[in-house]
Amino acid sequence: MSEQPPTRRGVLRAVGGLSAALAVGGAGVVAAASSARAADDGFGLRIVDRNENDPRMWYYRFATGAIGWNPGVNVLLPDGYHTSGRTYPVLYLFHGGGTDQDFITFDRLGIRAWTEGKPIIVVMPDGGHAGWYSNAVTSNVGRRDWETFHIEQLLRWVEANFRAYADYDGRAVSGFSMGGFGALKYAAKYYGHFASVSAHSGPASMRRDGGLVTHWANATSAALDLGGGTVYGVPWDEARVNADNPVQRIESYRNKRIFLVAGTSPDPINWFDTANETQVLAGQREFRGLLGNAGIPHEWYEEPGGHFVREHLFRRDLDGIIGRLRPA
């Protein structure tokens, strides 16, 4: 499959460009059931829609008090899952931001083909159009506690309903763009959860250039998800920014596999993606420098092009994830 850059024009239209964004922003192993249980099993989730007909891609939609609407999740099973009896490592894979991004983003890009024959479960949940894998400081549309949904509810539900390793060496987290930030954030903040972390064009520095990424998170969340509320508050909740900022959590990446990708070239069509990837590149370079100074190994790639998922690097990353985690 050829590389298909996800469009970000939905975000551009919603916030009126980067300058408008700045203005707004400143103001153990568990045996699986044959199919997932429908009732709330103590994780705060209740299945309201599901499809388990496809032999590999199983779909669920949940009611949860953590989110004011019913988020969806795709669970991509490895070939032979239903007959092997084996227990598998799990990759939690997060989509980017924008009105065209959701839990089926990676299915559209080709995740089935990329994982063919690979012994790993891939869990792809909703994260909001601009949820930033965080619990919002303020919301005018009800709860949008994505961090609670992913870490406290979904992860436990997956491990109770699928033959998935329920330990550090059995889990990886990765994502594109906003999802790459979410992966870096969760890997540091919940150190014992994930042995491998990957950010494909994901920002790694929230305070550089006057806090551009934090302003951007506030602006996009206000416009797309929170009805004028913000992820980090205005003024910022400084303790929360500190806790979420990858470059301020360097020691929390020690003994993990780390994989980073950023583009180096302007987007010939979409100037917004050019501005976006320029900031991603600068932040990842800052992050890599700090990792290097701390003696923390990491794998990184800078390639021509703008803000999109690079299939060949995703495939390389996937092989590295499988190599790092417990084998099925």
UniProtKB/TrEMBL annotation:
Keyword Signal attributed: yes
PROSITE patterns the UniProt entry points to: TAT
Reaction(s) the record says it catalyses: 2 alpha,alpha'-trehalose 6-mycolate = alpha,alpha'-trehalose 6,6'-bismycolate + alpha,alpha-trehalose; an acyl-CoA + a 1,2-diacyl-sn-glycerol = a triacyl-sn-glycerol + CoA
Enzyme class (EC, first level): transferase
Taxonomic classification: Bacteria, Bacillati, Actinomycetota, Actinomycetes, Kitasatosporales
InterPro entries given in the database record: AB_hydrolase_fold (IPR029058), Esterase-like (IPR000801), Mycobacterial_A85_antigen (IPR050583), TAT_signal (IPR006311)
SUPFAM superfamilies: alpha/beta-Hydrolases
Protein name in UniProt: Acyl-CoA:diacylglycerol acyltransferase
